[in-house]
Each structure stands twice: as structure tokens, then as C-alpha cells.
Amino acid sequence: MERVSRRLNLSVQYACNAAELPSRPLVRSWVRAALDVDGGRGGRIVVRFVDPEEGRQLNHDYRGRDYATNVLSFPYEQEPVVCGDLVVCAEVAAREAAEQGKTLTAHYAHLCVHGILHLLGYDHEISDDEADIMEQHEREVMAALGFSDPYALSTAPLDGEE
Predict the structure, then answer these.
(1) How far apart are CA 96 and CA 75, in angstroms?
(2) What letters, b where the CB count within 10 A reaches 16 and e where it falls short, cover 10-24?
(3) Which residues have C-beta within 8 Å of that of residue 118, sequence separation ≥ 6?
(4) Beta carbons within 8 Å of 18's beta carbon, 6+ residues apart
(5) Which of 7, 36, 111, 115 fits 42 for a cystine, CB–CB 3.0-4.6 Å?
(6) Cβ atoms 89, 50 nearer than 8 A
(7) pLDDT 10s digits, 6-62
(8) What is the CA radius of gyration of the chain?
(9) Which long-range contacts (CB under 8 A, 24 or more apart) does 92-98 make?
(10) Tens digit of pLDDT for each residue in 101-135?
(11) Quick check: helix, strand or coil at residue 88?
(12) Quick count: other Cβ atoms within 10 Å of Cβ 2?
């Protein structure tokens, strides 16, 4: 069996001036933990924190939805390593964290884990069974990172859906 690289080439971009953005080492720990779900593959990943204007424009251009959402995933490759971009709208994440009674750090971690699972090929929009599988992975990764169940107190939809 061919050995799969675990090397992670991560770029964290801060394209907004939001308060309390997570540090690169924190983001790296969240991305690595999520990549370990499928046996610990490596990756070439960009995580970009944006303002609502950029988030709305990307969501409109790529999903046909004219609002800023919390996280967008752009997968490019899954084998032999995961390649893709995550875009996190800091203002939406902060609003959701407050609405859900979560720390902003915990919510950023969950959004990064959720986005990486999408890059790995998981998709909660396919079926209820697929959503259950993805959510269970999210719970396990978040617990391994020392966070509580991200869905325990959730009152807002994760993808900003109305």
C-alpha cells in the first residue's frame, strides 16, 4: 500500500479586521484534527477570514445565494492529499456564536472542522444519513480538541440557511 503524505501546507489569510480572529497555530490544530478523520491525510489548504461583503459575493457567485454565510468550502482534490479553500465570514461567525451561546473560538473551530469535512467529501445536504455521519465526525473531532458538542445548544443553522 502506498504511503499517503501527512504534510499540511496551510495558508491562513486575514482579509478583514474583525476582533478575536484565531491564530494560525490554532487554525492549524483544527485543520489537522479534521484531516485525521479519514486516516490522517495531508493537505494544501487555505483558510481565509473575510468580511461580509466578500462572503456575500463568494456565496452569490458560487452558490447563487445573495447573503454572507458562515463558511464556504471549495474542494479541488481529495487524493492523494486534500486540496481546497475555506472561507470563513468573521462577522457571521461572531453573530452565530453569540446567538448560540458559544465562545467565538469554539465556533471558529467548529466552522473549520465542518469546512474541512466538506473538503474530504462529506456533505450534509445529500441526505439525513449523510448529515448524521458528518455531524458525528464533527462531534468526535471537537471533543478531541477539547470542545463540547457543537450541536448541543445550536439554535441557528450551520450554513446560514433560512
Answers:
(1) 24
(2) eebeeebebeebbee
(3) 73, 75
(4) 49, 51, 90, 91, 94
(5) 7
(6) yes
(7) 899 999 999 999 989 999 999 999 999 999 988 888 899 999 999 999 999 999 999
(8) 15
(9) 92/52, 92/55, 92/68, 92/160, 94/18, 94/19, 94/20, 96/70, 96/156
(10) 999 999 999 999 999 999 999 988 888 888 899 99
(11) strand
(12) 4
Determine the residue type at 47.
V
Q: Which amino acid is at 55?
A: G
Q: At 75, which amino acid appears?
A: P
In this structure, what C-alpha cell is assigned to residue 6?
501527512
Task: Find where cell 448524521 sits.
Answer: 132
Q: Nearest CA to 108 among 93, 126, 98?
A: 93
